[in-house]
Design goal:
The protein is α+β, with helices and mostly antiparallel strands and 369 residues long. 44% of the residues lie in helices and 7% in strands. It has two domains: 259 residues, no CATH class; 86 residues, no CATH class. The chain is globular.
């Protein structure tokens, strides 16, 4: 997903869940910050680099593709962006090496999602925002895995977009190029992706890099033939999935606020969203590269408040200048604590399932923020 959903849509979901405007701003900032909290940024503010929730392109290019480099990637991308659905999934005739990667495939409503939401219960607003980022990405990043793998994450020539036309859709083959500096061309179905490398563990095969940014667009409807599913056609309907993500976030945040005594998977608050459903669908289905302006307008109408744009540097000085004993009380200190907890939990669950791709779970006891 993009900033339009992680920041603005998360604000709207938090507001519908009953949080105040100020609380919503903290939650949506934290949700978006997951996509920016890199080791590079943490070094800049003199924070702990192993609290990183993402990796920059240059960091990935410089990362060694040995077992330690792969473990670091897997810890970050599986914990925050491609939450595994079933760590004990079976695959007939599969080797253990293959099953370890197969079991990291992301889909909504897995056991780890319940743990992610429950982990934020009674914690900071930063923890709530971080959990909502993870929840939302389970819908956008379905069928891809947060570990380098050609067999799991690659796409081939059979990759078609379903473009609305009249009362139905037309199929149009998606064409890819490798110019990250050139904006995606929605009108002509031309998108940027990572270079093909016929190497199983190439960084080019991390997440949905081979499908480019396309799976993150809320308007995207597409079908393709993943090798992990024996080349059966997989159909992805982002407008439908993103609406489910939105209604699930409203429900999850109502639980985190205390309206429900337990969090249930595959439950959605459609009642709270119903008065705004047509407006949200209109935004989700609009064919545009960036929906921030539309979501921002909706959020401001919803709450009657001014929604400030995301500012990456907003809390950096507060953390950098805080005395060491006080860093944990700073905005980013609370985010870092939430990041540690989430990374530790997911890494621990992967390790205990017998899968060593994420390495050994982090020891967060006594960790200095």
């Amino acid at each position: 997903m993009q900033q339009d959903f992680h920041y603005y849509a998360t604000y709207a979901a938090a507001y519908l869940a009953g949080y105040s405007h100020e609380e919503c701003m903290d939650i949506c900032y934290s949700a978006e910050f997951v996509d920016h909290c890199s080791a590079t940024l943490l070094a800049k503010i003199e924070g702990p680099e192993d609290a990183a929730t993402t990796q920059l392109q240059l960091e990935l290019m410089d990362s060694p593709m040995d077992i330690l480099g792969i473990m670091e990637m897997t810890r970050i991308w599986s914990a925050f962006h491609f939450l595994p659905y079933d760590l004990y999934a079976e695959k007939k005739w599969a080797t253990k090496i293959y099953k370890n990667k197969y079991r990291l495939i992301c889909k909504p409503n897995g056991a780890l999602l319940a743990e992610t939401v429950n982990l934020a219960k009674g914690k900071s607003l930063q923890a709530v925002g971080l959990a909502m980022h993870v929840l939302a990405d389970t819908w956008a990043h379905s069928y891809f895995a947060g570990t380098p793998s050609q067999v799991i994450n690659n796409v081939n020539y059979y990759f078609y977009e379903l473009v609305p036309e009249g009362d139905g859709f037309i199929e149009r083959e998606i064409r890819f190029r490798h110019k990250k500096s050139t904006p995606d061309d929605i009108e002509n179905g031309l998108y940027s992706n990572t270079l093909h490398r016929g190497i199983e563990n190439s960084v080019m095969n991390l997440g949905h890099g081979r499908a480019g940014h396309f799976p993150d667009y809320s308007f995207a409807r597409y079908k393709y033939l993943p090798a992990w599913d024996n080349y059966k056609v997989v159909l992805k309907d982002n407008p439908k999935d993103y609406m489910k993500a939105f209604t699930q976030m409203v429900y999850a945040m109502k639980y985190l606020r205390g309206e429900y005594t337990s969090f249930e998977l595959d439950r959605y608050d459609t009642e709270a969203v119903e008065p705004y459903e047509s407006r949200i669908k209109e935004i989700l289905e609009k064919r545009q590269l960036d929906g921030c302006a539309d979501w921002k307008e909706f959020c401001q109408e919803l709450s009657g408040e001014t929604i400030e744009d995301f500012d990456l540097e907003k809390y950096q000085d507060e953390y950098l200048l805080a005395p060491k004993p006080q860093k944990g009380y700073a905005f980013l200190g609370k985010f870092i604590e939430a990041a540690y907890s989430q990374k530790h939990m997911v890494t621990d669950r992967i390790y205990k399932s017998g899968n060593r791709l994420a390495g050994i779970s982090l020891d967060i006891k006594g960790k200095k923020l």
